[in-house]
Write a structure and sequence with these properties.
The protein is α+β, with helices and mostly antiparallel strands. The chain has a single domain, classed as Uridine Diphospho-n-acetylenolpyruvylglucosamine Reductase, domain 3. 31% of the residues lie in helices and 20% in strands. The protein has 14 helices and 12 strands. The protein has a 5-stranded antiparallel beta sheet. Strands 9-10-11-12 form a 4-stranded antiparallel beta sheet, with helices on both faces. Helix 2 links the parallel strand 2 and strand 3.
């Protein structure tokens, strides 16, 4: 049995209290949300905080509510507290009808048991993953530690000056495509940034969130007129992290023309990647099969998966085109069951 290292646990009742604990020693303190990422990492000695700040008891972080304007009228935007579990999101019919892509992303994380514990904030801040990093302490010591923890070499690409561990969060690319924003709180105050600005393309320094900041909530803008979809590639039908993923959100006018669109590619770099060239091709157009194929071709060069997770990297790269194609066709309103059958055949 792999045991947790010793640590001091504190359970603040408010975000302000939690921020004060972080401010005392941000380099030695970590936040515990659902624990599905941090606790296994601590057991493997990948992360060894001296103090763990539990967020479970902070009621102000548990909510999903409709925002209102200064006049009291509903703005249409949804704000989701960071401690909202993925199960709560999956069970939210409002989210399923208005934000299908985010519902799909949350529903495909891990298993029902883990979704009962895992939170939206924790999934956004999920540690980057790598074949050489996600092993026991003894295994990593035997091959000489990697750059991400205790070593100085990235074993994925030994000449790389930075860590290439991969972003494996499902909700981040979808929230990025939706144009969502997060609120970060510290003892010094708070700030709001776009989800796209929350990440660096660096396996070690993958978050722009400072060590003394708490991700308090995420706000999804009004989705009136928007459609969204999330497609994920993994070996099994559940449990597994993505090895490639595509998120799309588009505003469609009454004539079926794309007014605006955002595509994001997940699990092929240390952060979700914007597919701006594909966006440009589709904006102002009607989504024909030919145009979708052109967008998939435009997305293909952006993803450069490395040999740091499941499946051959060449095949993961090859799957970018069909994932983009199926995500766009799903968002367009095509028969999802038939699209999934086609993807299943490609996985054989």
């Amino acid at each position: 049995m792999i045991r947790l290292p010793r640590f001091t646990y504190v359970a603040p009742a408010t975000v302000a209290d939690a921020a004060r604990h972080l401010a005392d020693a941000p380099g030695d303190t970590m936040l515990l949300a659902g624990g599905t990422d941090l606790l296994p990492n601590m057991k493997r000695r990948q992360q060894m905080p001296r103090v763990v700040v539990g967020l479970r008891g902070i009621r102000e972080l548990h909510h999903v509510h409709r925002n209102a304007t200064s006049s009291g009228v509903s703005s249409g935007a949804l704000t989701i507290g960071a401690m909202t579990t993925l199960t709560e999101l999956v069970r939210d019919e409002r989210l399923r009808s208005e934000c299908a892509g985010l519902w799909q992303a949350a529903a495909q994380v891990a298993t029902p048991h883990l979704r009962n514990m895992a939170t939206i904030g924790g999934n956004l801040c999920l540690d980057t993953r790598c074949t050489y990093y996600d092993q026991s302490y003894e295994w990593r010591k035997a091959i000489n530690f990697c750059m991400k923890k205790d070593g100085d070499t990235c074993w994925v690409a030994t000449s790389s000056p930075k860590c290439l561990a991969v972003s494996s969060t499902d909700t981040a690319p979808m929230l990025q495509a939706l144009g969502a924003r997060v609120r970060l709180v510290s003892a010094q105050g708070e700030r709001e940034i776009g989800v796209a600005d929350l990440f660096h393309n660096d396996g070690m320094a993958y978050l722009t969130r400072r060590p003394d900041e708490i991700l308090a909530d995420v706000t999804v803008p009004d989705q009136t007129g928007w459609r969204s979809a999330y497609w994920k590639l993994r070996r099994r039908g559940s449990f597994d992290f993505p090895v490639a993923a595509v998120a799309v959100a588009a505003k469609i006018d009454p004539d079926h023309r794309v007014e605006d669109i955002r595509l994001a590619l997940g699990a092929v770099a240390s952060r979700p990647l914007e597919l701006t060239r594909a966006d440009e091709l589709l904006r102002g157009q009607i989504l024909t099969d030919e145009l979708i194929a052109a967008a998939a071709d435009a997305a293909f060069p952006i993803g450069k998966p490395m040999d740091n997770t499941d499946y051959e990297l060449v095949w993961r790269k090859k799957m970018i085109r069909p994932l983009v194609t199926y995500a766009l066709r799903d968002m367009r309103g095509d028969d999802v069951r038939e699209l999934r059958r086609k993807l299943s055949r490609q996985l054989l």
